[in-house]
Automatic annotation (TrEMBL):
Residues 28-113 form the Bifunctional inhibitor/plant lipid transfer protein/seed storage helical domain. PANTHER family: NON-SPECIFIC LIPID-TRANSFER PROTEIN 2-RELATED. Plant non-specific lipid-transfer proteins transfer phospholipids as well as galactolipids across membranes. May play a role in wax or cutin deposition in the cell walls of expanding epidermal cells and certain secretory tissues. This is Non-specific lipid-transfer protein. The keyword Transport applies. One of its GO terms (biological process) is lipid transport. GO terms for molecular function: lipid binding. The keyword Nucleus does not apply. It comes from Heracleum sosnowskyi. It holds the Pfam family Tryp_alpha_amyl. SUPFAM superfamilies: Bifunctional inhibitor/lipid-transfer protein/seed storage 2S albumin.
């Protein structure tokens, strides 16, 4: 009987944690995975963003339901890009337009993610 109670408690705890995680902002791992195909364009190597790049960023834009989601995605991208040599602002800033993605903040290496709305 005690084992059943402990098992039920553990199961309910896990379900509670999973429910909390699904309400959280998009993870940086997901952001990195979705944005990775854009690197060649952001470095100026490719003349246009790839279909995978646009598809991934469209999925991220769609998943940003709240302002906190947008800020989290922005911060993840900014932190990831600053560690990659060769990314150029002039290409990075063109990605939303090239992919026909409407976002309400500039895409830039210097954007302040905490001030987006």
């Amino acid at each position: 009987m005690k084992n059943l109670f402990v098992s039920m408690f553990v199961l309910l705890s896990v379900l509670f944690l999973v429910a909390q995680v699904t309400e959280a902002a998009v993870s940086c791992g997901t952001v990195t995975m979705k944005a990775a195909p854009c690197l060649n364009y952001a470095k100026g190597t490719d003349s246009a963003p790839s279909a995978q790049c646009c598809t991934g960023l469209t999925a991220l834009a769609t998943s940003a339901k709240t302002l906190d989601d947008k800020k989290a995605i922005c911060n993840c991208m900014k932190n990831a890009v600053k560690n990659i040599k060769g990314v150029q602002d002039k290409y990075l800033s063109q990605i939303p337009t090239a992919c026909k993605i409407k976002i309400n903040f500039p895409v830039s290496l210097s954007v302040n993610c905490d001030k987006i709305n």
